[in-house]
Specification:
CATH topology of chain B: Peroxisomal Thiolase, Chain A, domain 1
Largest interface: A-B, 48 and 57 residues
Number of strands of chain A: 9
InterPro entries (chain A): ChsH2_C, ChsH2_Znr, NA-bd_OB-fold, Thioester_dehydratase-like
Protein name (chain A): Nucleic-acid-binding protein containing a Zn-ribbon
Number of domains of chain B: 1
Shape of chain A: extended
InterPro entries (chain B): Thiolase, Thiolase-like, Thiolase_C_2, Thiolase_N
Strand content of chain B: 15-25%
CATH architecture of chain B: 3-Layer(aba) Sandwich
Strand order of the largest sheet of chain B: 4-3-5-8-1-9-13-12-10-11
GO molecular function (chain B): acetyl-CoA C-acetyltransferase activity
Helix content of chain B: 25-40%
Largest sheet of chain B: 10 strands, mixed
Oligomer: heterodimer
EC number (chain B): 2.3.1.9
Radius of gyration of chain B: 19 Å
Distance between the termini of chain B: 19 Å
Number of helices of chain A: 1
CATH superfamily of chain B: Thiolase/Chalcone synthase
Order of helices and strands of chain B: EEHEHEHEHHHHHEEEHEHEHHEHHEE
CATH topology of the largest domain in chain A: OB fold (Dihydrolipoamide Acetyltransferase, E2P)
Order of helices and strands of chain A: EHEEEEEEEE
Structural class of chain A: mainly beta
CATH architecture of the largest domain in chain A: Beta Barrel
Number of strands of chain B: 13
């Protein structure tokens, strides 16, 4: 074993006065998306003036400055563009087993979701998936999940 | 626009620095930079403080730093561009001098990341994108974003985990010779490959550490610079660009579009080509990031970054000597300080003041700093010459 020289200087310290943020996150303009997830559907928005499609959905079109948007549902199949398995979990996710997050392209767009698979080394870029939604009880929210179409990993 | 020179540089020791506050840490770098330039605070007309600040208890850190460093009344302009904050500070100070508004400006970059625990730090870093659509729903972390790049790069170009490990081995080798580096020891390919997974395929030793540190750079106009020093280092160009906040809206996951655009701007202004660069500090927050940087900066064609490291082209004396400081990977990555620490290192390199074993051989005296913010959200490319 080589010597391990690194900089770690500790000294006496005191704790700060705790600061807790509880943010309100407005969803008034994207409630349709929320309801869609509850029903197993994933929505994007499309500008009726210039045709630009937005995912994540948004109500303003910076391309043509229109606010004339319609909701469009995304297909229920897609293909994996890339993925990772998160082992070092952040605050808020410590209680979850390591999870695979994937980016999937579908309907000319890309979406993020959790891939329902155990062995990341058997998953490949280009694998086909089925897109659905699932309730995460611990966070009381619905999320997008992917399942491999052609194999079990 | 006037010519602008680097006339003084300073850097604190990087690492876990729970022995000092943010302002005490900043002063270590500012004091050294002022002394290096041979000036005092009264000569500084503008201070720019770059700090991300999302892990600290000070919510207005720039005024705290400015007061402690004896710079009250000299600014401060506070800037933030995620991990490229130091470069945004440099650009702000550079523009003030180049435009003629001031003759001497001081850019300070500082970050304390170890005042909170690792889970909190991961939760802050995981918000580096678009909170609702990424972290809130899916618990992304900062390493996870670079893992997305690594997975895609490996699948498309055959880049391997061994290639990535070689970047760690190289950068630790130089950090072992850098007394200001966070990790001053060497690692082996085997150790990198068997280190624990953080966000597969990224492992612990593919990752830059959670570091505290500061760096400072004094800039001066042509006329003042020639009065202050015999060895000015000139800023030839600073290129910049950005990319989407939402990761799903990126062009692809094979490289950083913002880097390519910033590099193109910088090369054009400096009237050089990638082949002219002799020494570079590139943004290796994870080992895959350095491999993509070789490609996006034009040192090698897209997809050949793995080969570039395997052939030793980025070693000292190779085609371009990359990250002789140890890089973010082993020198450490205190967000706000990183961009200015790159300028610190390149200034020392171009003055030929570096220790044996990590001084780049120079003929044209052209250096390049490449600093990325977020997961490719921001990019700055700076060209320096002696």
């Amino acid at each position: 074993m080589m010597s391990r020289k690194y900089v770690k200087r500790e000294g006496p310290w005191i704790p700060s006065v705790p600061l807790v943020y509880n943010h309100k996150l407005p969803i008034a303009n994207i409630e349709k998306y929320w309801k869609g997830l509850d029903e197993g559907r994933v929505f994007a928005t499309k500008c009726t003036a210039c045709g630009t499609v937005y995912y994540p959905p948004q109500i303003d079109c910076p391309s043509c400055r229109s606010q004339q948007m319609e909701w469009v549902e995304l297909p229920k199949e897609g293909v994996i563009d890339t993925f990772t398995k998160i082992y070092a979990r952040p605050q808020g996710y410590e209680d979850f087993e390591p999870y695979i997050v994937a980016i999937v392209h579908t309907g000319g767009l890309r979406i993020m979701g959790w891939l329902k698979a155990k062995d990341e080394r058997c998953v490949k870029v280009g694998d086909r998936v089925v897109i659905r939604t699932e309730k995460v009880e611990k966070h009381n929210k619905h999320i997008i999940v992917f399942e491999l179409t052609d194999k079990i990993c | 626009m006037r010519k602008v020179a680097v006339v003084g540089v300073g850097q604190s020791v990087f690492g876990v620095r729970n022995d000092v506050t943010l302002q005490e840490l900043a002063w270590e770098a500012v004091k050294e930079a002022l002394e290096d330039a041979g000036i005092s605070q009264k000569d500084v007309e503008l201070s720019v403080v770059g700090t991300v600040g999302t892990r600290g208890y000070e919510l207005m850190p720039s005024v705290v730093v400015n007061e402690y460093c004896g710079l009250v009344g000299k600014g401060p302009v506070r800037v933030e561009a995620a991990c490229a904050t130091g470069s945004a500070a440099l650009w702000t100070a550079y523009t003030a001098v180049a435009s003629g508004q001031v003759d001497v400006a001081l850019a300070i970059g500082v970050e304390k990341m170890n005042e909170v625990d690792t889970a909190t730090s991961l939760a802050v870093g995981g918000r580096a994108g678009n909170y609702l659509w990424e972290f809130h729903f899916y618990g992304t972390t900062f390493p996870a974003y670079y893992a997305f790049y690594a997975t895609a790069h490996m699948a498309k170009f055959g880049t391997t985990e061994e290639h990535m490990a070689m970047v760690a081995v190289k950068n630790h080798k130089y950090a072992a010779r850098n007394p200001k580096a966070h990790f001053q020891y060497e690692v082996t390919i085997e150790e990198v490959l068997t280190s624990r997974p953080i966000a597969w395929p990224i492992k612990l030793l593919d990752s830059s550490p959670i570091s505290d540190g500061a760096a400072a750079v004094v800039l001066a106009s042509d006329e003042v610079a020639r009065r202050l020093t015999d060895t000015p280092v000139w800023i030839k160009a600073i290129g910049y660009s950005s990319d989407t906040s939402n990761f799903t809206r990126r062009l692809d996951y094979l490289g950083l579009r913002a880097t390519r655009q910033a590099a193109e701007m910088a090369y054009k202004i400096a009237k050089i080509s990638p082949g002219d660069v002799e020494v570079a500090e590139v943004h290796d927050c994870f080992t895959i990031a350095e491999i993509m940087a070789y490609e996006d900066l034009g040192f090698v064609e897209k997809g050949k970054g793995g080969l570039f490291i395997a052939e030793g082209q980025s070693e000292l004396g190779g085609k371009v000597s990359v990250n002789l400081s140890g890089g973010l990977k082993a020198k450490g990555h205190p967000l706000g300080a990183t961009g200015l620490a790159m300028i610190y290192e390149l200034t020392k390199q171009l003055r030929e003041e570096r220790e044996r074993g990590r001084q780049a051989p120079l003929r044209k005296y052209i250096g390049l700093a490449h600093n990325v913010g977020g997961t490719g959200h921001y990019a700055y490319v700076t060209v320096l010459t002696r």
